[in-house]
Amino acid sequence: MRRFLFALGCALTLATAAQAAAFSKADASHDGMVTYAEARVVMPQLTETSFNKFARNGVITKSQWPSLSNFYDLMYRQR
Asked: In CATH terms, is domain 2-77 a member of 1.10.238?
């Protein structure tokens, strides 16, 4: 059980680090917010409709990014 929890913790840490790196890459203006156009750099299949389900005022913040990233992974990368 300990090995499983350790492996799960490692996997979550790696996923979080990957999401942070993707956010930084997408945030071309370095203002802490990602527009739809910026998000398409790292999520090329993302639709504007899907983006807007997670966005507030047309942008995604760093705290919102994991939700969008998880959605994108489920919808597009798992296929």
From this structure: yes
